Predict the structure.
Amino acid sequence: MKRELIETMCPICHIRDWKIWVEPWEKYSIYRCSNCEGEFTQTDNTSSYYEKAYKFGGNIMEDSYKLGICVSPEENIKDALRASPEYKYALQFLKNTHAHKEDKLLDLGCGNGVFAKLAEETGIEIYALDSSDEAIKYANEKFGLLNTFVGSVDNVPSSWSGFNFITCFQILEHIQDPSNFVEKIHKLLAPGGYLIMSVPNKERLAVKLRRREGWDYPPHHITRWSRHTINILLEAAGFINISVTISDITRSGLGFIFLPAKIHHQIVKQRLNAAIPVAQGSEDSFISSKMWSLFINSADTFVRLLDYTIGNIYGETLVCFGEKA
């Protein structure tokens, strides 16, 4: 592939220099910054483009979102602990830093409230916001989270400030100006407070095997991250004691590598049908069969082996920690 150069400003480190052309598509190109090594896109952000781009794979993202607000809180927690290893790292960090009931944690982009609920069980005061009113309604009604708000970091209530911890999981890769986003988080933290966040690992196994997942393209993801890129971003925002850990390889991540996208969507649709009372015949789905159970157990064994051997290099997620001086 011919790699052309352009001169433009990187939205991650804000350095204007030559960028390497990495990957083209119909209405965008992806570039790599020679300074921070982050990858970013310049897109045609029209509503029609978004509608077209989100239709890949039979609109699996929309059905995955619906699933998250249809299944029980218990099932959501089980799914999250299996597919979101960053939660494990974040909860362990709260434990290691001896978080106590006077501490406040803000979960940005909380989704249906799974992590916020798990963090609440450590005894600290929880605040949570998300741009989806349906997700916030679920967090409030199903998980009993009280300090919830529909919005973004740009309109956090003025009474919400001085947080000891701010979490944002799988959010940064969606942001058009990541450096500005992180600077706003820095202002919301109390001195000595911590930012805990996660992003997809640019060097994960799926990418190395040339099986990049459909969700890792614009307009869903518009930046891509490495350890080096994260360190540059957080240092520029004023964070100290920065640490970036590569999380586990998960069964769901392995599935994206070896299973066709249509199979993934089939699984999501059958789980969604099973979660909706009006669905007919959902109890006979293949995901409830003994053969499927055997397949899952075998996959879990293979995942543990992969994680033990190469997970610290090719794991799916970067889990990042930074302290406000």
The radius of gyration is 20 Å. The domain at 60-251+307-324 is CATH 3.40.50.150 (Rossmann fold).
